[in-house]
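Notes on consecutive records. When two proteins share a document, each keeps its own sequence and its own token line. Never mix them. Below: protein one.
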Amino acid sequence: MTALPQKTPLPLDDAMDRLGLGPFQWRLLAICGLTWAADAMEVLLMGFALPGISAAFGLARGSADATWLLTATFAGMLVGAVFWGWLADRIGRRAVFLTTVSLGVVFGLCGAFAPGVAWLIVARFLTGFAIGGTLPVDYAMMAEFVPTAWRGRFLVYLESFWALGTVVVAALAWWLSTLLEPAEAWRWLLGLAAVPGVIGLLARLGIPDSPRSLLVRGQEAQARGALLRVARANGTTLPDAPLLAPPPALRVTPAALFQRVLRRRTVLLALVWFGLSLGYYGIFSWLPSFLRAQGLELGAVYRTTLLLALAQIPGYVLAAYLVEKVGRRATLVGYLAVSAVGAYLFLLAGTPGAVLVTSALLSFALLGAWGALYAYTPELFPTPLRTTGMGFVSGMARLASVLSPSLGALLLTGRLGVALTLFAACFAVAAACAWGIGVETRGQRLPEAVLPENGA
């Protein structure tokens, strides 16, 4: 009897490309985007709530407690990004996908009921610890579920929800300022900011684990089941062939990020994340207080911040086009260069109109840079280390975020030139590091294993 010919194993990239772009990916984008917008609200929250908290607890401008309140969320995110990123590579994306959002909602609501500054600082740290895990996991999930030709654009689309969160928190703060006294409004602001997380959690329950993560952990049947769910949602058919087993997985530890070819990528990416974050949060975490110190009334501060958030949208739109047209690396370097120039233009602005225009340019360029960076980063790490790598480099960003409020306070103490020179230098160094990575991932398949020492 003649043996039946064995079917050729199907690589995961081929399977995902054949399933195409359809309702599944758009739904995943909406779900992850909602949570990403909620995270933006939580991260930027203290900048809007600080005037009310200061009024409620008698905090002096630039006091240690005020700086701690701005720093606590970032400190939590530093720990959370590294921990949850590592855990997601060990146990799978979906479990962390659900847990971090749940904890973010709980701790976010706890902050709204904090009886004092110390309790509020603890609540904000724990909130940051929870939402720090959504970054590496959401971007790994999106990268691993989207066909190659669309991956870069979708990763920028996901990052663009940050602008939505910024617009919502600015509008919410403005609206509450018209209804309540600042000493009371901040509690409502913290409480309402947790609501999108609840909706995002419920929506996430229907999302399967990443087939790449499942396959790397030896769960071929579950990986195929996840692909079949994509096929049903998109109205396509999964080929009747076994999935190609990935190469043996590395031991998932942060130390693996510094072995062989990954070492250069990890170090340079960490510097890019650190520099961009230090400048971005150094400027924008203190911008509402800076505008307030220039004599703007609170409602005008919130309206101005809302306009700056709207300026982010065209930055994302252009980045989504450029990452596929000219590539991830060139787009990232270009936006960082414009950010460095924009910081000096902001320094030279001498009228309220010039301040608004130059800060809008900064908002446009910096968020475009973030969009390109979020598209580039997950494509540089292999599947067994993708969320570990994302967690590590984003942890470096959170380390910068912890430092940035102290440096950003220079904006309020009259050392504007020192602060903006430092931030412009950060953007310039980040641009040089991004170019130094020397790898373009546009149109390339996601790596499943660490490349040899002489690989690109």
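Protein two starts on the next line and is unrelated to protein one.
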Amino acid sequence: MVSHDRILIKNAYLMTQDERLGDLVGDVLVTGGTIQAVGRELQDDDARVIDGSGGAVLPGFIDTHRHNWQGALRNLGPAWTYEEYRRRVQIGLGQYFEPEDVYIGNLAADMMSIDSGVTTVRDESHISNSPEHTDAAIAAHWESGVRAVFDHGWPSTEAEEWQFGSVRTHPDDIRRVRGEVLADDGARVTLNAMLRGPELSTLEVADHDIRLARDLGLRISMHVGLGERGARQQAIRRLAEAGLLGCDMTFIHCCTSSDEELGMLAGHGATASVASALEVFMPGLGQPATNRLLAAGVRPSLSVDTETIVSGDMFGVMRAALAYQQLIVAGAGGAMDRADGLSTFDAADLIAFATVEGARACGIDDRAGSLTPGKEADLIMIRLDDVNLLPATDAAASIVAGGHAGNVDLVVVAGRVLKEGGVLRGGATVLQEAASSRDRLFRAAGFPLPSSGAGLRYRG
């Protein structure tokens, strides 16, 4: 009898992201949720065989920074500035979220992620309005099947009291979550700490919060280099001078962090997350720091940020990073990108940023991010023989330049198939509920409901 927990993908183009294995045409054997073998002419009579001919198999994309709770608010303001986003979403709507809205938003974001080949999301959750809100967010990740790094943040009630000079320390409920909810660092859903740092709070608060996270054994994420304030605050430099900068930290954006600060980040072994699509769409943040990070010795990860502004897939993020680099090459980059001889990257680098570098930033590179035997089976297959990608002369270039969610044929997380034959498994119920959640939130905030499309529902 064929056992469906054993999967053998045959004759695919394997983009392993493992330096020892490289790229090859071959097979991947998955058993018990783990990559058992990668090679040519593998055989397993008990495995279900998936024909990989015409497809590229690679590690699932890893999104190192997404505010999942906004999943039911997607595409609201692609032309918004940073201040408009904060006023309308974080301040305007965040305070009205009930735990059920968080659950729906997170699950909707997870289903979008899975459909587009994202197998790990680092959920930057600044919707911890109550313990029940936090638990609902985590429950959605368990339900969806995605691998999630839940970054416990602050509330969106009294939102202005929690940012830009805030003297409030991180919510103490993180201790309960660590002790009672997400204690297992080897599970599919794990815990990190989303801290505000000296740019959004004070150095004294940052010191307290960082020590709290480290006492709990948690990795740390932190937004820095946000517009003019980021340039003035120089959060990375201040953390370094205070002896707080460390290799357990991921810095998000870094748009207006100085080159000197990026060098400090590299020197301490910290990682970075570039939300390139959001950064080129949203005035007020600054430009993507991808090239400057590379020049400083940091290979960054990539992230979506918020679906209220940009699409929730990594294809658009990769393309935006490349498009902005080409502006730099053409001499049309921002003021911080005009140094001679700035480091550049190509499509293969972008695939690495979206996979193995994402795993390193999340601290899960021991079990995800590459097609390495012994790691958990988080992998995707992209159809290179689809009409929009033919003739796929260069697999990485084709995926970056032309790929989209419709080309993602197979998605596997921890050995569990979540999408196959281009069809996403599950999700219909929550996607039907997303519009209802949005409507309730708009009414509570006194916002006018959308003039068209308000009655649309999922037809899957």
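For the record: Residues 454-460 have pLDDT under 50 and may be disordered.
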